[in-house]
């Protein structure tokens, strides 16, 4: 009675194992720390570059503080934090159980 509609229990277990492996790979690829860290690093670089040579009018608006430079550096540090966190504590792999026969 282990055969149902042409699938054996072994075939079903193999498909489940493949799906679990694909799910674990997708979880690692789409980990929010990677997305958030990458975006903060990208925007941090852009804003920092904009803050390197501030115009007099932008400094006047911010009362002499180079807002773009400090915000860009802060974003860059936050993005690097997320990426380092991802590297130091990656998503654990899914344990795939193989059926004993």
Keywords:
mainly alpha, 101 residues, rod-shaped
Beta content comes to: under 5%
What sort of overall outline do the alpha carbons produce when their principal axes are compared? rod-shaped
Number of strands: 0
Helical residue percent band: 55-70%
* Count of alpha and pi helical runs: 4
Tell me, rounded to a whole number, the average pLDDT.
Answer: 81
Determine Rg (CA atoms, Å). Answer: 24 Å
Poorly predicted regions? none
The class by helix and strand makeup works out as: mainly alpha
Q: Give the terminus-to-terminus CA distance.
A: 16 Å
Order of helices and strands: HHHH
Biggest beta-sheet profile: none
In short:
The protein is mainly alpha-helical. Helices cover 69% and strands 0% of the residues.
Characterise the protein shown here.
The protein is mostly helical. The protein has four helices and no strands. The chain is rod-shaped, with a radius of gyration of 24 Å.
Helix and strand arrangement:
Elements lengths: L8 H21 L2 H21 L3 H6 L5 H22 L13
Helix pairs in contact: 2-4
